[in-house]
Amino acid sequence: MSLPINYLEFNNPIHIVWRKGTPNDPFIDRLDIARIVNQRVFLLEIPDELYRVRITGMIEINYEAFIKKNLDKNEFYVDYTNGFVYFHAAREAETVSVVYKGRGLILYPSSRIVHYDSMDSTETLYEIIEKSKSQVLELIDRTENYEEYLNRLVIAINNSNHATDQALLASQKAKDATELVKDAYETTVLIYQPYVHTYDDIAKKFPYPETGWTTQVFDTGIRFRWNGKEWVPIDALGGNVPLANELINGLMSKEHYTKLKEITQFVNEKTMVFIIPKDILQGNQDPHIVFDWDGEITEIKASISFKGSQPTPIHIQKSTDFNHWVDITDNPVMIAAGSYFDNKAHTITETKVQRGNIFRLHIPSFSVDAQNLSVNIKIMLNDSLST
Known about the structure:
- The chain has five helices and 24 strands.
- The chain is of the alpha+beta class.
- The chain folds into three domains: about 15-105, no CATH class; about 110-185, no CATH class; about 265-380, Jelly Rolls.
- The strands form six sheets. Strands 16, 17, 19, 20, 21 and 23 form a six-stranded antiparallel beta sheet that branches. Strands 1, 2, 4 and 8 form a four-stranded antiparallel beta sheet that branches.
């Protein structure tokens, strides 16, 4: 993510600074420790919706559940557009640790900061500052007596004290956020460059490096990162280190080599896991999964953590193009009312899996009242481990 020189130097519209989420400009891991005020916490950055927001001991609910009922004490809802996290009223004034991946910042101009007088909004910060400036100029131009000018100036300053305090607070927060983002970028980013044969070749091949550039020296196997001032060794791997066998250590220990040779057939198994937290809604469920190996489906298991008073039917569907979907079982995978697990009354009819096949869940019934659905699909891969 390219950083502006100064976060306060922007035009009147809201200024948004996004990271791209690429290897060269990744979303960064963040841990915000904040106190709950008015049943919400304001995150320092906008969180990534794919990675989600995580709070130990609490469950995130979706928008439909949030507007349909009040939050429970162990639940929270995230506004991924503005970076707010909402909590139950019983958690007011508690301090929470929020883990997420930061996408970037939204910066607001003074014209969008409103001063409130009692319950009604009166003026924006920009209007108050401009009015104060006009009052000062008017006093200088029209006042013949210094004492009168001083008294009127004090009145104007008192009227703008609140606006000035808010401006200073916003300025400090913007400065702190700038330093945090800059420090995180300069100390964590790794931008991989082609390898070189010796350490002396680094300066020749990369005479003008940028912060985060990383390269590996082949003859030693050491990787170096440019920290803005010098090339710093960060780890060692590969290079001319010998391969391991049963007698000597190499790129791995001889103990690990022996253990690797004894790995059982279970290394050829992979399991696709679908998880639908909280309410199970009718229709196609998110997310879908693209499977990257050839294999054969050997087992399907479904379970819930909150039993329903109605049966929970589940269609597991496969596609090659996102348009044409087929069920992989003769009957829906069924979790009976009052049960945690499926009744095993289905037969797998589409066992073959090809690389690139797409899988999803479809719930045909609107009356499902169970919660926290989990579906595991075990697949035996065609490729075997070479020894």
